[in-house]
Design goal:
The complex is a heterodimer of chains A (about 300) and B (about 220). Chain A has about 300 residues and is of the alpha/beta class. Chain A contains 11 helices and 14 strands. Chain B contains 10 helices and no strands. The chains are: A alpha/beta (about 300), B mainly alpha (about 220). Chains A and B meet through helix 2, strand 6 and helix 3 of A and helix 1, helix 5 and helix 6 of B.
Chain lengths: ~300, ~220
């Protein structure tokens, strides 16, 4: 059991189609959603959390279909951390979590126990008396994660939780998400490829409201295998020429030489060597390939 | 309850409300004590409208409303009602204190012909207190409702300001008479036996009740 999205379409009032006939199946465990800004990740999450109603298609969660009659049942199963959220700045961490727990309908005793447990897990116990406005960005995100977990949801939906955080905090958040995915489904969106490399086995790639890929990370890497090349550019002019002709995934000066990593369907017309594919290369490959070559809608 | 007090009564809101009443009691001239209620009612109404406009919209601007969507509707609505109640109690205390400040700063006469004595002053205050309680409740609820409807606190304040300008005017008095929302302000102060202004307050109570009843529906629909 998990989440199933079939032929989902979301259109805004200004006639912009944010999600375009998308299909996806999200199994138990941690599932990554990768895509550029504006790809439709947040819109998808807003649909899954019942904030937005789709224009077409169906969504089911544990076999329960998304419609107004089932919203109450569905909402009990979900914990959500939006991309940008300001928790109550004048409350302390403890007060904020107690308040949000009470609003979500958890009993006082259970709420206190869960707060203690999650504060310990997120290393925030000693900060419980601090006001939210006194916390760092990463700490606020961790408090946000706790509030999403207070009702012990079966599905945890987290929208770009690592954006704007320093490397240490990012690693901490990623590790927490992996810990929390042990007994539930965690849907985790990001536009930072390394967040997914470090956490997920399964992922979906979104672009302009469509899923370009959904499945195993290994298979995604395999699709890009043989299309990643590394070459040396003699000078900046040549480097610019290569950038115009191919998708360049990295440029690096090494020992006075400019090393360029290219993504190309066919071997480039210059001296180059095939090289190991990273998730970043695979992402560039998949998002810039012809649709018929890469779409693997489930 | 403590959390809701901290959320709905941050320091800056308390400060501007107190400042508003202090300034008003200093600059709005009154000659007799029975003019104090008139001097306070309409300004307190606009203070209530601006004070309560962000009761729920602060959840929208902070994106917390997206999380609140997952909470049971009953709990969400009770929290909004509790916040309104806390703010109204605070405003009512400010309104009562403001009444006293007029005495303190302006020493108004208490001997208008045919009226005198401490008993009359107390009765006058109690009538003011009841009238202003209804006024504050009405404008606070209305402003919050409009803000929720348009998902924008400025729409709540703006809508209330428009209604305030219409009803708190001589043409509003002429048109609505004793049914005006500010009937207490426009009553005949020389004639304490004339209680026809209560009709205007009944209108406020009725609209206030409808507003409170419609609010859950609007929050549910508009998020």
């Amino acid at each position: 059991m998990g989440m199933k999205i079939e032929d989902l379409t979301v259109t805004f009032k200004n006639h912009v189609t944010a999600i375009d006939h998308a299909n996806l199946e999200i199994p138990k465990g941690i599932f990554g959603l990768l895509g550029e800004n504006g790809a439709g990740k947040t819109t998808l999450m807003r649909v899954l959390t019942t904030v937005l109603s789709p224009a077409g298609g169906t969504v089911t969660i544990d076999g329960i279909r998304y419609n107004e009659e089932n919203y109450e049942k569905i909402r009990k199963k979900i914990g959500y951390l939006p991309q940008e959220i300001d928790l109550y700045p004048s409350l302390t961490v403890q007060e904020c979590l107690e308040y949000m727990g009470a609003l979500s309908g958890i009993s006082k005793q259970a709420c206190k126990e869960r707060i203690d447990c999650y504060l310990a897990k997120t290393s925030l116990s000693e900060h419980r008396r601090k006001k939210i406005k006194q916390l760092s960005g990463g700490m606020k995100r961790r408090v946000g994660l706790i509030q999403a977990l207070l009702n012990e949801p079966e599905f945890l939906i987290v929208d770009e939780p690592t954006t704007g955080l320093d490397p240490e905090e990012r690693i901490r958040i990623r590790n927490l998400l992996v810990d929390f995915s042990e007994e539930r489904t965690v849907l985790f969106s990001t536009h930072v490829v390394e967040d997914l490399t470090a956490t997920c086995d399964r992922l979906a790639v979104m672009k302009k409201g469509k899923f370009l890929y959904a499945g195993n990370m290994k298979e995604l890497l395999a699709q890009a295998e043989g299309h990643v090349w590394v070459c040396k550019a003699a000078d900046e002019t040549m480097a610019r020429k290569l950038e115009r002709e191919y998708h360049v995934s990295s440029k690096q000066y090494m020992g006075g030489e400019l090393r360029i990593k290219l993504i190309s369907e066919r071997p480039p017309q210059i001296e180059c060597l095939p090289c190991e594919t990273t998730l970043e290369d695979a992402y560039i490959y998949i998002t810039n390939s012809e649709p018929q070559a890469s779409v693997t809608d489930l | 309850m403590i959390q809701e007090m901290k959320i709905s009564l941050p320091f800056q809101k308390q400060a501007y409300a107190v400042f508003f009443v202090v300034i008003l009691s200093l600059v709005r001239g009154v000659t007799y004590s029975d003019e104090i209620g008139i001097a306070l009612e309409a300004p307190m109404a606009i203070l209530a409208a601006s004070f309560c406009a962000d009761t729920y919209t602060q959840e929208i601007t902070s994106r917390r409303s997206e999380i609140q969507r997952l909470y049971p509707m009953k709990k969400r609505i009770y929290s909004v009602y509790r916040r309104i109640m806390i703010q109204e109690i605070f405003l009512l205390s400010i309104a009562a204190a403001g009444y006293g400040l007029f005495y303190l700063f302006q020493h108004p006469g208490i001997n208008r012909i045919g009226q005198n004595g401490a008993e009359n002053e107390i009765r006058q205050f109690l009538v003011y207190f009841a009238a202003v309680a209804v006024t504050l409740g009405f404008w606070g609820l209305l402003s919050n409702l409009l803000s929720c409807l348009f998902r924008n606190m400025w729409m709540g304040i703006g809508g209330c300001l428009l209604l305030w300008l219409i009803t708190n005017s001589s043409s509003g008095d002429r048109y609505f008479g004793a049914w005006n929302l500010f009937s207490y302000t426009f009553r005949k102060i020389g004639d304490s036996s004339d209680l026809s202004w209560i009709r205007g307050k009944i209108v406020c109570i009725c609209i206030g009740i409808v507003t409170a009843m419609v609010l859950p529906e609007i929050i549910e629909k508009r998020g």
